[in-house]
Amino acid sequence: MRYWVQLATEQFPPSNLIEQAVEAERAGFDAVNVSDHFQPWWEPGESGMAWALLGAIGQATERVGVGTGVTAPVHRYHPAVVAQFAATMEEMCPGRAFLGIGSGESLNESPCGMDWHDPAEQVARMDEALELIGRLLDGERVDHQGSYFRTKDAYLHTRGERRPPVYVSAFGPDAAGVAARRGDGLWTLADPEAAPGLIEAYRAACDDAGKQPGEIILQSGFSWSKDDDTALEGARVWKPTQLDEFYTDDWHDPKAMYEKAENELSDRSFTESYIVGSDPAHHRERIREIEKLGATVVCLQNGSGADPLGALRTYGEHVLN
């Protein structure tokens, strides 16, 4: 079992996230990824540019994997430029780079001028984007005129020796099928009700594609502090991430999203999905539950607003070992 930490561009400024990455490597995490957002889920928040941040993290660390969690090549990023970013990271951090890909949220795409579409079109856009990204990372020179994207003689002139793996975020069976056909693994939330069915759909689609299943990355968030109340208050801003409609419908006002989540989601319901508390044993127990769902990688977002560096040290000393 491997453990990744996701660093929250929505909650902390980039300079602090570089410190967190160094602390995460010291704590024993196997990889660091950063959320790739244009806006936070609430206001006031942060919104540092993930790609610039990852370049700095790659140079500040030595061992951990580095990648996005996740990038949406559906509007604000052209797939060819996403491939260029991944290839550049691999050249700078040999053997360490990876790319997380998802179908996006209105929160990040609508402010950049996109008219939001239904989930089926978002998944179709992701599928076409992944085809282009894969071909470019394989070293092809690509002419493409598709439903959503075009390239003219596109080619990655800088690539590392290794093709960086691409992990695909999925919340439904259609996206799980895309992950099987186009990616090197499935990335989804560690929801005990939804995850088993998605994993089954992904593995079945791998069989249909004649491929071995890749990584199964199951994600949750955690907030640690020296007392339970402070741990909860430090993570309260993450309530909007627990509402399904924010991933599918045209919600892109962070203030409205936070207000809706705070009104509709109780603290108890929130802590059933987010790992919150002061006792490391509680964190270990919850992580073991995620492992039993079938993960090969457990990805843990550090939402410890009260003490993010202390939380990582606590994980290194008392949770991961």
Write the layout of secondary structure elements.
Blueprint (H helix, E strand, L loop, with lengths): L1 E6 L6 H14 L3 E4 L15 H11 L4 E4 L10 H14 L4 E5 L4 H4 L9 H19 L4 E4 L4 E5 L11 E4 L3 H10 L2 E5 L5 H15 L5 E10 L3 H8 L9 H4 L5 H11 L2 H7 L1 E3 L2 H13 L4 E6 L5 H12 L2
Parallel strand pairs: 1-2, 1-11, 2-3, 3-4, 4-7, 7-8, 8-9, 9-10, 9-11
Antiparallel strand pairs: 5-6
Helix pairs in contact: 1-2, 1-13, 3-5, 5-6, 6-7, 12-13
Which regions have little confidence, pLDDT < 50, spanning 5+ residues?
none
- The fraction of residues assigned to DSSP E strands is 15-25%
CA radius of gyration is 19 Å
The SS-based structural class is alpha/beta
From the spread of the alpha carbons, the general shape counts as globular
What are the secondary-structure elements, in order, as H or E? EHEHEHEHHEEEHEHEHHHHEHEH
Tally the helices: what do you get? Answer: 13
Helical residue percent band: 40-55%
In words, what does this structure look like?
- β7 (166-169), α6 (173-182) and β8 (185-189) form a beta-alpha-beta unit.
- The radius of gyration is 19 Å and the shape is globular.
- It has an 8-stranded parallel barrel with strand order 1-2-3-4-7-8-9-11, surrounded by 9 helices.
- It contains 13 helices and 11 strands.
- With 321 residues, the chain is of the alpha/beta class.
